[in-house]
C-alpha cells in the first residue's frame, strides 16, 4: 500500500492533517480507497548538538468507506482496518509513499479463556454505556456513546479483498474497544488512557490487551457511577 498520512504526536490522536486528505482525494481516492495513517514520534538527542528528528510509529491501514460530495469539498467516512509496520519510504513528494506489512496478534490457543474475556469485556461495556448516557455533561464534552460505537465498529465485518491479509480477527479488534474516553475525563485520566493505548498497541497478545481494556473499563464504570451519585445529590 503506497499512500501515507502523517500525524505529529503533539496533535490530538487520530486528528489527520488536512493536506493529506487533499492528496488522497485528488490522487488515490477513486483508485485505491486505502491509505496508511501513522504517528511521528520526536527523537531528541540529549546532551549533543545533533538536531532532533522524528520516527514513524503506530501505523494503521485506513479504508475509505464513503465519500459524500459537498458544495465545497467532500465528507469522507473512514475506518481503521489494522496495525501496520512501515518498512520503507519510497518517495516524499508530492506525498509520502512506502512499503508496509501487517501487524497481527500472535495466534492464541486459549480459545475458551479468550471467549470468556471477550464476553466479560462486552458486558462491562454495556454497563458503562448504560451509566454514561445518564450522565449530564456540557455541550463541549465528548460524545457519550464512544464505547458502544467502538464495539459496533469491531463487530462489523470488513470486506476488502486487497487488504484481507491486514484484517485482524474479531477478537483482536474487540480487545481495543475498551480504550475509549468517557464524558468528563480529567487531564490525568486522559493521560492514563493514552498510556494504556500505547501499551495496547505495543503488545501482540490479545489476552493481555483484553486485560488492559477491562481494567480501564472497570475504572470508568466506578468513575461514572461516582459522578452519577454526586449528580443525584445536586438535583
Mean pLDDT: 77
Structural class: alpha+beta
* Termini gap: 55 Å
Helix-strand pattern: EHEEEEHHHHH
Number of domains: 2
Q: Number of helical runs?
A: 6
Percent of residues in β-strands = 15-25%
* Helix content range: 25-40%
Query: Count the strands?
Result: 5
| Global shape | globular
Largest sheet: 5 strands, mixed
- Point out poorly predicted stretches: 1-19
Give Rg in angstroms: 20 Å
Query: What's the oligomerization state?
Result: single chain
Strands side by side in the biggest sheet: 1-2-3-4-5
Protein name: Lon N-terminal domain-containing protein
Organism: Dorcoceras hygrometricum
Keywords: Membrane, Transmembrane, Transmembrane helix
Could you describe the 3D structure shown?
- It comes from Dorcoceras hygrometricum.
- Helices cover 40% and strands 24% of the residues.
- It is of the alpha+beta class and 235 residues long.
- It folds into 2 domains: 4-102, Roll (Archaeosine Trna-guanine Transglycosylase, Chain: A, domain 4), CATH 2.30.130; 111-234, no CATH class.
- It has a 5-stranded mixed β-sheet.
- Helix 2 runs parallel beside helix 6 (206-234) and helix 5 packs antiparallel against helix 6 (206-234).
- It is globular.
